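Fold this sequence, please.
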Amino acid sequence: MNLFKRKTPVEDLPQEDVSQEEAYVVNDAPTKSFGQAILPVIACGAGLFSDGYVNNVIGSVSTVLIYQYGDLYTTSNAKKYVSDIAFVGTVVGQLLFGFLSDYWSRTNSLLISTVILIIFTALAAGSYYHGDAVGMFNILTAWRFFVGIGIGGEYPSGSVGCAESTGELKQGSRNRWFILFTNSMIDWGFVIGAFVPYVVAAACHNGHYETIWRTSLGIGCIFPIVLFVMRLRLKEPEEFTKNSMRYAKTPYLLVLRFYGWRLFIVSLIWFIYDFSAYSFGIYSSTILANIYDSSQAPLTTVFGWNTVINMFYLPGTMLGAPVSDWLGPRYALAGGVTLQAIVGFIMAGCYTSLSKPSMVGAFAVVYGIFLALGELGPGNNIGLLAAKTCATGVRGRYYGIAAAIGKIGAFVGTWVFPYIVAAGGDNEVTSAQYPFYVSSALCILSAALALFCLPHIGQDTIQKEDIRFRAYLESKGYDTRQLGLKKGESLDSVEIAQNETKA
């Protein structure tokens, strides 16, 4: 039963498109304990840990494969394909599961994506091809593509389900819990994805290369297995139960007219963020180059410092999570990305001084602040904006398209930034500065897009969007009575049994 606290006027809907009866959205008081409400948030969102782990551990795996196979690995282009193919798979997964999570089920889509992730992560760890190293590289590349599909499914199924499940939590805290179990999970995945190879390399005394990379990949199965068990008990989020288009024909033209501009802006911000983020790795390599000789360093040294660099992300995402509740995700994104741009311009302008070996400590601190601000701004909030700027019936597809365009931006960035670096010519300082001038300028553009082209996102925006969208569809003659799941469809077997006993 819903307990009604108050009514809030719907914002931003043209008056001719909304009736008096539908001009209000009901804010529900929490009907569950915190423990009951937070479990589906964790189960839905935490799968993005695997995104961080799988995408970061492959860098360490590639390093080990270079140590093991030398020029055979680098000259066969395997290094590039093994690292990048997961991007392609992720885009496919985001689009595919965006459709499935809307047309079929949030929870079933999650379970399938988790199974795909577990199976193909295990296959990647066991890649073998009759003793032929090049053949093994090809098999590893193929399995990584399917791993990417599993990861991609987490975005429109998991993150969307997580956002919808936060409606059961107390107002004023919903954004932070979404962030802590989505973007923060990615960042923790990055850290653990760097730390696990360090531990394994230490246990192997920097030898037994095959054991190191296979074990590092295989450990990536553990978290999805635990999560799969948790997800077996998941029910469909309440908003999905009420507003799903599972049994309704999607009016794509009306959806495009109503949400096309927002989707374009959210996708563009996500593209810019991922596109730019890859240039920031330049400073990481500069710091490490001033600390040790990568061509002679033992694996534990390489992986240890990689772990330290990745830990810079954590303060930004963890401390920045409450900011999205205090300011709202739109202002938090704009503020964080503006501050990041300022620091980026300073780092580019002072690169000559900061890149000296004697300044490595100061460089690392400033770089850490730079990364933290990126997480506080777009890192934390772009997924939140994508999840809460559209209605439940099309949220999976909307989110999946935006996330896929973001991943495409990351892929494009890996190919474009070498040309930006090359534009600096033989001047090493200029070549390092150019990408950061470009990225910092794009940060300012992202802030402007968020401030001037997106609506305010409040604690009950998901409910408001469903009311607005229903009203719009009805104003265009669409029968909204077909929205929602059938009675009892969202109940799990335990609840059904309890209800039958009571009857």
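The first strand starts at residue 4 and ends at 9. The chain has 22 helices and two strands.
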